[in-house]
C-alpha cells in the first residue's frame, strides 16, 4: 500500500517575530495558500512535554541564544517591522511557559477558531506587549473569539491536548525543522519569512518571477537574505 502523501504545511511559533511577519504576508497576500496549508505550532516544551518527547526519542533543535544574536535580532526585527509598516513592541518574558499559548491554539483550532486565535495572539504579543504565556491572557483572547475562557486558559491541563502537542513537535522533528517559520511542500523545505515567495511558487507550480510580479516589495527588504527566520532557540527569540 502506497504511503499517504502529507499535505503542504507550515510550522509557526506564536513566540517568534519572524513567524508573525510570515503570518501577516501569508494571510494578506496569499490567502489561497494559507487556506490550503496545515498549520502546525512549534514551541519550546515545558518539563511535562519534554518528558513525553524523551520517551518518544524525539530531540528538538533547541539551544540557548547568545547575547550577540539576541541583540542582532532586536535590530533586525526593528528594520523588518519598519519596512512592513508595522508598529512592533517587544514584550518581556519572565519564566515563560510556551505550552500555555500553543496548546491553547490546538484547542481553538479544534473548536474552529484557530485562525482567529492566531490573529489575536500575535496582536497581543507583538502589537500590545501582552504576556501570552499567562492563562489570564488566553482567557481574554477566548472571550474575544467567542470561546469558553476556561477552555483555552486550562489547555495545558488536558492530557489529550498534551498528546496532540507532542504529535506536533514530533512532526516537526520528522520534517527536519531547525527554525521557524518553516514551510514544507512535498520534499521541498523553506525556512524563514523571506522564503515565502519561493514557497508560494512551489505550491502554485509557478515561476518565482511570476509570484514576485504580484508582490509589492518592501523598499528596505532584500529579495533574499540570510535573515528572516528563527533558529537555535525554539520559536526564535523573545
TrEMBL record:
Statement: the UniProt record of this protein carries the keyword Isomerase: yes
Keywords: Isomerase
Catalytic EC class: isomerase
Catalytic activity as recorded in UniProt: 2-hydroxychromene-2-carboxylate = (3E)-4-(2-hydroxyphenyl)-2-oxobut-3-enoate
Residue ranges annotated for the DSBA-like thioredoxin domain, each copy included: 11-197
Listed Pfam families: DSBA
E.C. no: 5.99.1.4
Annotated InterPro entries: DSBA-like_thioredoxin_dom, GST_Kappa/NadH, HCCAis_GSTk, Thioredoxin-like_sf
Similarity section: Belongs to the GST superfamily. NadH family.
Name of the protein in its database record: 2-hydroxychromene-2-carboxylate isomerase
Amino acid at each position: 500500500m502506497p504511503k499517504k502523501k502529507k499535505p503542504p504545511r507550515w510550522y509557526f511559533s506564536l513566540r517568534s517575530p519572524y513567524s508573525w511577519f510570515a503570518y501577516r504576508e501569508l494571510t494578506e497576500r496569499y490567502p489561497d495558500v494559507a487556506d490550503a496549508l496545515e498549520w502546525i505550532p512549534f514551541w519550546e516544551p515545558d518539563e511535562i512535554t519534554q518528558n513525553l518527547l524523551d520517551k518518544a526519542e524525539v530531540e528538538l533543535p533547541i539551544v540557548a541564544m547568545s547575547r550577540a544574536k539576541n541583540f542582532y535580532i532586536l535590530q533586525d526585527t526593528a528594520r523588518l517591522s519598519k519596512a512592513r509598516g508595522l508598529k512592533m513592541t517587544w514584550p518581556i518574558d519572565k519564566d515563560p511557559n510556551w505550552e500555555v499559548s500553543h496548546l491553547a491554539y490546538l484547542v481553538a483550532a479544534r473548536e474552529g477558531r484557530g485562525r482567529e486565535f492566531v490573529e489575536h495572539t500575535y496582536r497581543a504579543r507583538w502589537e500590545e506587549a501582552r504576556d501570552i504565556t499567562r492563562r489570564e491572557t488566553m482567557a481574554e483572547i477566548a472571550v474575544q473569539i467567542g470561546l469558553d475562557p476556561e477552555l483555552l486558559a486550562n489547555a495545558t491541563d488536558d492530557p489529550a491536548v498534551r498528546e496532540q502537542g507532542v504529535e506536533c513537535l514530533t512532526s516537526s522533528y520528522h520534517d527536519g525543522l531547525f527554525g521557524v517559520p518553516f514551510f514544507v511542500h512535498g520534499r521541498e523545505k523553506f525556512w524563514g519569512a523571506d522564503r515565502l515567495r519561493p514557497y508560494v511558487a512551489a505550491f502554485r507550480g509557478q515561476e518565482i518571477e511570476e509570484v514576485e510580479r504580484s508582490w509589492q516589495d518592501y523598499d528596505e527588504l532584500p529579495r533574499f537574505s540570510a535573515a528572516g527566520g528563527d533558529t537555535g532557540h525554539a520559536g526564535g527569540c523573545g
